[in-house]
Write a structure and sequence with these properties.
Blueprint (H helix, E strand, L loop, with lengths): L1 H25 L14 E13 L12 E12 L6 E16 L28 E21 L9 E22 L6 E8 L7 E11 L2 E8 L14 E9 L3
Amino acid sequence: MKKLILFTLFLTAGFSLIAQETEKKKKKDWSKVDLGNRPKDHLIFQIGYLQWMQKPDSIATKGFARTVNAYFSFDFPFKLDPRFSVGLGAGVGADNMYFDKDAGRNLNIINSNGFTFAKHVGRDTLNRYKSMKLATVYLEAPVELRFMVDPTKPNKSLKFALGVKVGTIISANDKTRFTTDANGNTAYVLKEKDKKHFNNLRLAATARIGMGNFGLFAQYQINDMIKEGQGPSQIRPLTVGITLTGL
């Protein structure tokens, strides 16, 4: 009986030592990993579906509103654990929002007193609206905290990123297509360009998750898009879409 107990204790101790050795092998010293073949700079391209959060009921959007982002980003891995890194970059982001052609007149963003998206009451006998679009373009600087499961294999590894983007508006323009026949042929196009009603600063929270070179992203503007008193306030764009990047 005593021999059986001693054998059991010995066996248990043996398994414990094996488990400890296995655990030591699993714990990799990431500070000694060589990332010499990992590129420091990356091109990030994103396209996603755009929504305006907190918009009033008077704004009738329609169609595939979209955001397109393109950034050049530098990656700075942590020395003690290169699975973590900080990404700094610069690039442009463009939003294109479309509106219901039966919901109103052209946006008239050149109006010095501000602009509205109010629905048109009654039938417009002079013009028929075919499409309406508002396009805004921003110069942006994204900052990210990144995590990669295996930094030695960036093209195959699972990766995450959280960050913010600080941007300034470059341009804002609206485009309205009119038609005067029943076939819907475009008669003429009205274009207006003016950014004075929009906040110069755009601050957005961002998140990414991906595998290899492909992933999903989301961005949400924290501050209001339109200046107070210059149009519908509290509109904050939200975009969810796909990302193509080397990191």
